[in-house]
Amino acid sequence: MSPLVKIRSERDRMSAVERRIADFVLDNAQLLRDYSSQQLANALGISQSSVVKFTQKLGFKGYPDLKYSVGEAIARADNGDDVEAAAQVRGEAAESPATGLWRRKSEAEEATRLINPPQALAAVTRALAKTGRSGKLFLIGLGEDDVHARGFAYKLALLGLPVVHNFDLARMTASVSAAGADDVLLVFSEFGNQPALCKIGRHFRESRGMLVSVTRHSANPLRALADAALLVSAHDERPYIQSLLYQSALQHLLDILFVQLCEGDDARHAQLVANLERIQQVLES
User: Which residues form the HTH rpiR-type domain (predicted)?
Assistant: First the structure.
């Protein structure tokens, strides 16, 4: 994995000091070879030990190891062997807004892919599929998070899964009171710190159902409570861009789950095709 991708994917979990170091490395990758750990610390107004701890937390032996890895990524970029690193090294100065947005979305999707290992996605897919045989599937999100919860609920319903979607806290609280051990609750919350959703999650777990959180790749109460976590890594200093990156990366993550469900069972795929045909007939009538 490129060290630049690794740093970007872990940024949401970093402390304020660590994020400052990460942003400096990402913004000045080409210049890093000219900085010692002490010079980098001086440039940021932090201690040298903070720089060393930052590199070790990312899995490097020390600052020289990080600097060497970044240098290798730059060399691969110069040789055309690493498209992602090349884009990072070139920066955004010469890009049009449209090109820059496409690149940043691709980076966010790549970072999100790396922090959701295949085995974790497979476990969530199996749990969702199981509800089609012996359980129910609950989904909830508040505000903008409900856009993704609603869209994913629709796709799951097309596959014939028993979906219960709600954005009303009172109704969802009443719905999960009848949940069982084979049920699954997906809670969409970008920052994972909404107390009401955490309370619903706790009530659901009391019924021994499986709680799946959908949040940023950060330490948050909802993620800590969940049995399984779907994580999104998306960062940009511009708030209006960061929101777009999060939505794009999350949609890509949900699309992966949907494809796995479609391709994992012929009966579900047949149900999808049949439902799409029925919907088209209704729309044309």
Answer: 1-77
In sequence order, what E strands does 148-227 have? 163-166, 184-188, 210-216
Q: Please tell me the number of Cα atoms within 13 Å of 98 on its side-chain side.
A: 0
Q: pTM score, two decimals?
A: 0.75
Q: Is the pLDDT of residue 84 over 70?
A: no
Q: What confidence tens digit (pLDDT) does each residue in 189-221 have?
A: 999 999 999 999 999 998 889 999 999 988 899
Measured CA angle at 3 (ends 2, 9), to 5 deg = 90
Name the CA dihedral angle for 240, 244, 250, 251, rounded to a multiple of 10 degrees.
150
| Alpha-carbon distances of 210 from 39, 182, 225, 267, rounded to whole Å | 49, 8, 11, 24
Q: By residue range, what is the domain housing residue 81? A: 3-91
- CATH number assigned to the domain comprising residue 136: 3.40.50.10490
- Cα 183 to Cα 207: distance, rounded to the nearest angstrom: 9
